[in-house]
Amino acid sequence: MIGNLNHVAIVVPDLAAAAAIYKKTLGAEVSEPQDLPDHGVTTVFVNLPNTKIELLHPLGEGSPIQKFLLNNPSGGMHHVCYEVEDIFAARDKLVEEGARILGSPEPKTGAHGNPVLFLHPKDFAGTLVEIEQV
Ligand code: CO
Predict the structure, then answer these.
(1) Is position 96 annotated as part of the catalytic site?
(2) What is the pLDDT of residue 111?
(3) How many A from CA of 80 to the centre of ligand 1?
(4) Of the residues 54, 61, 97, 130, which is catalytic?
(5) What φ, ψ does residue 86 adopt, rounded to 5°?
(6) Is the pTM here over 0.90, yes or no?
């Protein structure tokens, strides 16, 4: 069902510093920061030849990644995002398999303007999984 790895997301305490590591130290192509108020995050995308790295920093009160940053003050890997062709078909199949959707079962619009859903890490080998319709 899942296709390409769309991105790996890393929560960082300092977005500019993390972007500089990817741009200067690692020599990658890095986007400008983008605020996503619906998701409570600011993102910077690192574009690699075969996938992306999504650098995440909390935005506003009650950001869903605030607690993660408190528990991991130097930052850390937060989730992986897999592409699916049809997010509703994927959701229904996953629920049928016993997987839990985090939050509303209705897809939200993600960082690339595509519908996304998040799946419970306890159902996926301890890793928070995002699925994105591409
Ligand atoms: Co993501």
Answers:
(1) no
(2) 78
(3) 7
(4) 130
(5) -135, 110
(6) yes
